[in-house]
Write a structure and sequence with these properties.
Layout (H helix, E strand, L loop, with lengths): L10 H19 L12 H18 L2 E3 L4 H7 L9 H10 L12 E4 L5 E5 L6 H12 L2 H7 L63
Parallel strand pairs: 1-2
Antiparallel strand pairs: 2-3
Helix pairs in contact: 1-2
């Protein structure tokens, strides 16, 4: 485990993510599980174990679609921004959707070269953590409501356009507030073996950079 300052705001998050990562490989290989870190309480440990189990179950259940993600990424414009109907129609014509697939348990969806393009993880977040998230989100109702864009979706405002949100079943105000600590890691190839399913063949040119 990488050493981190004990007073860092995300210390617990870092320890929990490291623990999940160390559980994943033994689970998919059928080996004994690792010892839990002493810094985490029982509730967090249960949540970590549940998430690691869902990830492992999904990894062992690959679903392949007839789609070439590498070529699709090459067809995208650099730094895609805003809504461009003509460009989206051209992409849809060149890369039509595959047959409809019903996912009813944890799975990874792979393209035809078995590159993972989607992790489907129902109930991956422990119920106790979900309840905490709902309670915390309820306190952000005002900024969430202000974040939604009304009217025409133009430019880079499409991400928070009202058409992307639906009424909540838990009384939470729909909206979007960017506070993700992993924002700058999005769109970069992941480290480790979890971007492919074993036995895959990657086309020449590599994965590219989404």
């Amino acid at each position: 485990m990488n050493p981190i300052p004990p007073d860092w705001a995300l210390t617990t998050t870092h320890i929990a993510s490291e623990y999940i990562c160390r559980q994943f490989s033994p689970l998919i290989a059928g080996k004994p599980n690792v010892l839990p870190p002493l810094e985490l309480n029982f509730s967090i440990l249960m949540g970590c174990s549940n998430l690691a189990s869902k990830l492992a179950n999904a990894y062992r259940n690959p679903v392949t679609i007839n789609f070439d993600m590498v070529r699709y990424v090459d067809a995208l414009q650099m730094m895609e921004k805003g809504i461009k109907p003509e460009h989206e129609e051209n992409l849809l014509a060149c890369y039509p959707p595959d047959c409809q697939i019903l996912l009813d348990r944890p799975a990874v969806v792979c393209d035809k070269f078995r590159v993972i393009v989607l992790w489907y993880l129902p109930s991956a977040i422990d119920l106790a953590i979900q309840n905490d998230m709902v309670a915390a989100t309820a306190k952000m109702s005002a900024p969430l409501a202000r974040s939604v864009i009304r009217g025409a979706a133009t430019g880079d405002k499409w991400r928070t356009h009202e058409s992307n949100f639906y009424p909540s079943q838990h009384g939470v105000t729909p909206g979007c507030i960017n506070m993700s600590p992993t924002w700058f890691l999005q769109g970069h190839p992941p480290d480790g073996p979890c971007s492919f399913i074993p036995g895959s063949e990657v086309p020449s040119g590599g994965l590219g950079n989404p």
